[in-house]
Amino acid sequence: MEEISTFEIHEPLDMHLHLRDGDMLSLVGPLTSQTFSGALIMPNLVPPITTKEALLAYKERINEACYKDKFEPLVTLFFKNDYTYEFLNDIKDQIIGIKLYPAGVTTNSETGVSSMDIEVLRPTLESMSKLGIPLCIHGETNGFVMDREKEFMPIYESLAVAFPKLKIIMEHITTKDAIELLDKYDNLYATVTMHHLLITLDDVAGGMLKPHLFCKPIAKRPEDRTALLSAALKAHPKLMFGSDSAPHPKHKKESCGCAAGVFTSPIALQVLTQLFEKHGCLDNLNKFISLNAQKIYNLNLAKKTIKLIKKDFVVPTAYEYKNESVIPMYAGEIISWSIMSIN
Ligand SMILES: NC(=O)N[C@@H](CC(=O)O)C(=O)O
Ligand SMILES: [Zn+2]
Ligand SMILES: [Zn+2]
């Protein structure tokens, strides 16, 4: 049989992305917007995006930094308990969803919600449900680091039951428990990163410590990775690709007190193609990387085709702009697929 040597991805979408701001935005914005058709942009800036003015201004800065012709920044608001129905009604057409962070569980989440008590959250979530605004959640408790996501499962369940019309997206899932929950509730969906399909805690801390693979939620056990990978490879219809590409300056990663986040945007399409090819599942890659998200979020995007070729791609050792330097996953390593053309 002749070996496949090229592969096309249409309208790739990254449904969980950190673009940051300032020089970092100028550095990473082009890297995503060149190859992706759209991305769901996280609101955890300092301070987080909580007003219409801040949202629109951020969207404008993103458009300035990005190749904006064929790239749609799908912006989000940082969840607050005190958003009124009127405020949400006014902003709903500008956002794709609202992102909820329990306070303190991850980067820039200090002003997140201090309680996941449903009665406390009810007024805002009822308004979102009525207005059809999806709820994206960083689902971790503040328990033992390996158990934080698992411990959050009952919270996802009670939210799914209490607000059956609210679309709830479990962001960057890392456990087989989360995969199992997907099939239990109609209104639960999930994103999964590329790195959680590839690594376990062993890759982060089993040998020499790898700060560039350190992220929240932390990579888990082999059985978790297997469950995530098998759902992604079969393009489970409620699972979407969300890179959670989370750039931090090199000095904040290679430091005592390493910031959480893995930077993967510029290598995501190549690595995912390599991974799906290795498992004989290339036929499902367009669903995982675009079609599932288009259906879940009712998206209609400009046409964009990325042609990849089976040819070695040496991952740059760093991406730099002015004083910013970011180290990508697989820095200096070789991936067997490269981007050939973008149309
Ligand atoms: N994933 C991470 O480890 N970090 C993200 C925040 C997040 O997505 O939780 C970041 O903003 O750096
Ligand atoms: Zn998160
Ligand atoms: Zn994230």
Automatic annotation (TrEMBL):
InterPro entries: Amidohydro-rel, DHOdimr, Dihydroorotase_CS, Metal_Hydrolase. The active site is at D244. It holds the Pfam family Amidohydro_2. It is an enzyme of class 3 (hydrolase). It catalyses: (S)-dihydroorotate + H2O = N-carbamoyl-L-aspartate + H(+). One of its GO terms (biological process) is 'de novo' UMP biosynthetic process. Substrate binds at H18, L19, R20, N44, H138, H248, A260. GO terms for cellular component: cytosol. The modification N6-carboxylysine is found at K99. Keywords: Hydrolase, Metal-binding, Pyrimidine biosynthesis, Zinc. One of its GO terms (molecular function) is dihydroorotase activity. Residues 113-251 form the Amidohydrolase-related domain. Catalyzes the reversible cyclization of carbamoyl aspartate to dihydroorotate. Belongs to the metallo-dependent hydrolases superfamily. DHOase family. Class II DHOase subfamily. This is Dihydroorotase. It comes from Arcobacter venerupis. The gene is pyrC.
